[in-house]
Amino acid sequence: MMSQVLSTQTEIAQEHRAWIRLLRAHSALTRELSGRLEAAHGLSLRDYDVLVQLYSAPDRRMRRIDLARTVILSPSGITRLLEGLERAGWVAKHHCASDARVTYAVLTDAGVAKFEEAHVTHLADIEELFASRFSGDEHDQLAELLGRLPLADAGTCNA
Amino acid sequence: MMSQVLSTQTEIAQEHRAWIRLLRAHSALTRELSGRLEAAHGLSLRDYDVLVQLYSAPDRRMRRIDLARTVILSPSGITRLLEGLERAGWVAKHHCASDARVTYAVLTDAGVAKFEEAHVTHLADIEELFASRFSGDEHDQLAELLGRLPLADAGTCNA
DNA sequence: TATGATTGCTTGCGAAGTCAACTATACCAA
DNA sequence: TTGGTATAGTTGACTTCGCAAGCAATCATA
Fold it and tell me: What per-residue string of b and e applies to B124-152 under the rule 16 or more CB within 10 Å gives b?
């Protein structure tokens, strides 16, 4: 039946140890960081991610579709996420004059303030749970290694 | 109003570059790997993860709660995930004789077969999308760096 | 032995996100 | 101009998962 018994238990884990650790680290960190962000500012990790992108973008605005691709969310996902940020008054819609298909997501003044407020504590959280584990060189190294991984729709990615 | 303008756009990204890359890499890889696994075997990435754990466990069984902690899922999450695997006949419930609170999740013969079938193509996918990006040393290095990150409920973790 | 705390597990509910389907606009080519 | 295709965006149905609440069994302690 069983054509060939797979290697020992430990070997199975070894074969993709780094990938498994990436999975686990992501789950655990995401949960903890999201929890803190939610408690302190009422933002999910994705909300924050979108705010950073808009904050760093020229004119603090992006086409919704580019935003979706950057934070790796489906088009419908972005619609729904932005719905919340718009309801809170942190992001506004702005229609494109030259192409009626396009809508921009623009950070409002309130959104800028909200981001800057959340930014401080969130960076501290990342420092505590993530960055403090590595020296400067190690941090760069980790970023370089992770940067080699495929981002699927990488075409528009600007991170 | 704005007490202090935050550094330039690029600097904001720099401050947590590795973390952002971990987020993005996880999203993209997860989506691609899960898609392939689903298409080829009708399994989600988490389903697979649970199957690996059970396959590698002594007697191919684990207490449901330990399983949850290992794959970083809430207790209710494990109940629902296992529901699917049980319906498919790959996992069975086994009540503990010495402690009536405890239920084991046991891999059935069909489950073993299913895992071994999925294992082959999934490892190839991981190799293609993940492992092939790194040399042996780099892979170890990446695993080591990621291994330093906190796993929250790390108490029971055995990965 | 009785009582209170803890542990394992499940269920109701809600949040978040995907896919498929649809609309509207834009672009391209005959 | 018209017809076909691609792009931007939204919506509905569905899935997945966490939290809060609850139940049952166990353990600790008096």
Answer: ebbeebbbebbeeebbebbbebbeebebe
